[in-house]
Design goal:
Structural class: alpha/beta
Distance between the termini: 39 Å
Number of strands: 11
Largest sheet: 5 strands, mixed
Number of helices: 6
Length: about 290
């Protein structure tokens, strides 16, 4: 959790620094260039915040709303130095970034490596954006008489494009929310049960999310009691049942931890399933050496 908190703090600090730069460069950059830089960085910041948020808290609509609010506020502040229309563009860019970041980050199974990779990529992209701003300042030339009209028309077009993109992304998320394979990339496929010496039993934790069972296959040893903890994540849905014909199990699952104990497991492979989500897994009991 400290890694997640540190990454959030780093992203917010760098975003704040770029807000400072946008106001500092107000008289050095043209409105068009300033608006473009603000929108680009708002998307980057929103994507980083969205990816970190979904990695830290799973994909929950409440968390998504909070991350989107922060990204939208940051995008608005980034564009505010150049007027109300760049501020609107920044707002929409932040929301787009948070949406894309949440979807992309949610595709990966929760991992410290993903959190670190997002933070490093954000630092690199922030540096590139800063250098691009420096280049635009040094390459700037006095505007021509028609530049004001051109910048107004281009800013209107950019606002329309951002609005249309936001509508498409929001609509896609709402319509496809149950079909997005959250946590599917990098998901572990196998695990061996841990040994609890104090209680003389085997213990295994199996998560249930929108991606199904994680991991899908768990190995145990025979002649030793088994404790299985089924941890149902918020995005897995409600009204779930764990079914195993081999084990004669047909049990309701609640959000959070659900505990099942097998007292005398025999060697063999036992299927487990959540029919309503078409999720399948196996428990393999191996003969003791």
């Amino acid at each position: 959790m400290l890694l997640h908190a540190g990454s959030f703090a780093l992203i917010l600090l760098l975003t704040g620094y770029h807000m400072f730069l946008m106001f500092r460069r107000k008289g050095l950059l043209s409105k068009r260039n300033g608006m473009t830089l603000a929108a680009v960085f708002a998307v980057l910041s929103g994507m980083a915040l969205g990816a970190e948020g979904v990695q830290a808290f799973d994909f929950r609509w409440g968390v998504f709303a909070l991350i989107t609010f922060i990204a939208a506020a940051a995008g608005t502040a980034l564009g505010m130095a150049y007027g109300w229309q760049p501020a609107i563009n920044g707002f929409m860019s932040g929301v787009i970034g948070a949406s894309l970041g949440s979807m992309l980050g949610g595709l990966f199974f929760e991992s410290r490596l993903i959190v670190m990779a997002v933070a490093v990529l954000f630092i690199i992209c922030s540096f590139i954006a800063q250098k691009a701003g420096d280049h635009l300042i040094h390459a700037s030339r006095p505007p021509r008489k028609k530049s004001n009209l051109t910048s107004k028309s281009s800013s209107v077009v950019s606002t329309i494009v951002l609005g249309a993109s936001l509508a498409v992304i929001a609509g896609g998320m709402l319509l496809q929310q149950d079909r997005i394979a959250l946590g599917a990339i990098g998901q572990p496929k196998f695990q061996a049960a841990a040994i609890d010496e104090d209680n003389d039993m085997q213990v295994a934790m199996i998560e249930v999310s929108a991606a199904g069972f994680t991991p899908a296959n768990t190995d145990f040893e025979a002649k030793k009691m088994i404790k299985i903890v089924i941890d149902v994540k918020p995005r897995a849905g409600a009204g779930l049942k764990l079914v195993s014909k081999n084990l004669n199990v047909d049990a309701d699952l609640k959000e959070g931890e659900n505990i099942f104990v097998l007292s005398n497991p025999q060697p063999g492979t036992y299927d487990i399933a959540i029919p309503s989500r078409n999720s399948n897994g196996t428990l393999t009991v191996k003969a003791a050496d």
